[in-house]
Amino acid sequence: MAATVHIVGAGLAGLSAALKLSERGTRVVVHEATAFAGGRCRSYHDAAVGMTIDNGNHLLLSGNRAALDYLRSIGAEQHLVGPRTAEFPFIDLASGERWTLRLNDGLLPLWLFNSARRAPGTRAFDYVPLLKLLWARPGKAIGEVIRCDGPAYHRLVGPLLLAALNIDPPQGAVRLAAAVIRETLAAGGRACRPLIARAGLGATLIEPALARLAQRGAVVRMDHQLRGLRVAADRVEALDFGNEAVALAAGDAVILAVPPYAAASLVPGLAVPLEFRAIVNAHFRIEPPADQPPMLGVLNGTVEWIFAFPGRLSVTISAGDRLLDTARDVLAQTIWSDVASATGLPAALPPWQIVRERRATFAATPAQDARRPGAETTWRNLALAGDWTNTGLPATIEGAIRSGNRAAAIVAGHH
Ligand SMILES: Cc1cc2nc3c(=O)[nH]c(=O)nc-3n(C[C@H](O)[C@H](O)[C@H](O)COP(=O)(O)OP(=O)(O)OC[C@H]3O[C@@H](n4cnc5c(N)ncnc54)[C@H](O)[C@@H]3O)c2cc1C
User: Which of the residues 203, 249, 301, 330 could staple to 199 if both were Cys, CB 3.0 to 4.6 A apart?
Assistant: First the structure.
């Protein structure tokens, strides 16, 4: 067992590793480059809308077992809210149709055989591509395995894969699509209940974690960017923070839980994913209509999902790279006109904010997926964590937390 474990990066991967190790009584020091914890999953006060918002809407599903364990371990599971069953309301802006996808709880997908539960204009048979993805050879792209066309693709399979992989689905890695389908749709409705951090990501996933770490005596150092690792043949000897070097004692270990580009600059010879996809979020300060569902899928618009919060509507657009150069006010207007059509709210633009995360996730292509390293390294006291390490899942909260748990197990010698 390591004497002190230095965890670099206070995103969900770093925090989950810190929680696991501190729970075992290991002395933990977390070093975070910025002034806030949470990384790509954070809340902050935004002056334009005059309220606390999340950098992006984050959806969890009830089958995300590591994420739910993490929330239980910090006493925050009650902050996640969602319907009692797996329900997903949709609107098609082209046709004006509205429907709700309703998965049944059990493993047998009875919902496929009930036209009131599946997407309109589709037959049970149209969902066979989901099985093809489960059974396909893993190195392929989705577009090589299924036809990315037809009503079931446009109304369910495509939106699901786009949201889960954050990539135009035909380019996406079959291995990652299969993992998502296996852990959600194929596990039955009980694993697919949508869960949202209604009070915000910070209040749900981050602040309770920091409080639990503080309670256990773990040290979290903000504005403490790791600049370099001093390595010997088989171990890391010291951490270089620029104006301060931390020498590692014999039993000490390091978990590097930073994004891939940061890890590549710190670890000699480390191959990492090099391509990314953006996510665009828009936030509007306005009271949602009384009957607005917490989450609404939108088809045939710029907008893909609308999330309703008290006093705010927020929109997510995945693989949003095409929107990175659009003028912010033009984008806000375009997005709001979709929201107004979907909700019946007036066309006048309310106070808004647009958050464009350029490197929201690594590009979930087969080629980039193949570049993901495992958690173990050639240095015996250095482990890697992060949603981009080889978790077998796309870049998600669930993947980030599993990677942190795995790295913690490795440095604790329990893998
Ligand atoms: C807009 C958006 C929407 C998303 N939606 C969803 C969703 O709906 N569902 C879902 O499951 N996932 C979603 N994700 C993905 C999810 O947010 C990430 O998978 C997860 O937060 C990644 O956590 P991480 O700890 O691996 O990395 P990060 O959050 O990137 O954490 C890395 C940390 O390391 C720090 N760091 C970097 N370099 C150094 C250094 N040299 N020294 C010290 N610290 C350093 C960074 O500042 C950061 O805090 C979304 C992501 C975005 C951006």
Answer: 203
